[in-house]
Amino acid sequence: MKTKMEDIDKLIKDTLTEEEAKFYDELDEQNLFQMLGGLFKGKNSWLAFIMNIMIALVFGLLIYSIIQTFDVENTNDLVLWVGSVLLCFFTISMLKIYMWMQMHRNALMRELKRMELQISSLSSKMPE
């Protein structure tokens, strides 16, 4: 399967111009760290920065809540601090899930751009 994909990629690159081939190479699959870096590029990079700041603040509150959970003597206060710990866990989880969804969206957009490039390249080469 790997060789067939490499053959298809080679065939596509042969039909593209030099500039299109360079752009096609940039759209290749990314590793995890490249995808994380991709969150901080583009129109919504400000949102990724704000979300990371929020995650850091909520994580600090989580640590504080855990420490306070072990210090309380009253059962009602214990329930409140445990509720705070759970709320912090849920908040961090939801923010992380949103960021993973953005990474997935970026990967899909890259694939769509590759498909558009392939279609336009092949349609320009077809005889009418």
Task: Please characterize this protein's 3D structure.
The protein is mostly helical and 128 residues long. 84% of the residues lie in helices and 0% in strands. It has five helices and no strands. Helix 4 (45-71) packs antiparallel against helix 5 (75-125). 2% of the residues are buried.
Structural features:
128 residues; 5 helices; rod-shaped
Per-chain topology:
Layout: H1 2-15, H2 18-26, H3 32-38, H4 45-71, H5 75-125
Poorly predicted runs are none
Please give the number of β-strands: 0
Calculate Rg over CA atoms: 24 Å
Kindly state the percentage of residues in helix.
over 70%
Q: Profile the largest sheet.
A: none
Structural class by helix and strand composition: mainly alpha
What is the ordering of alpha helices and beta strands?
A: HHHHH
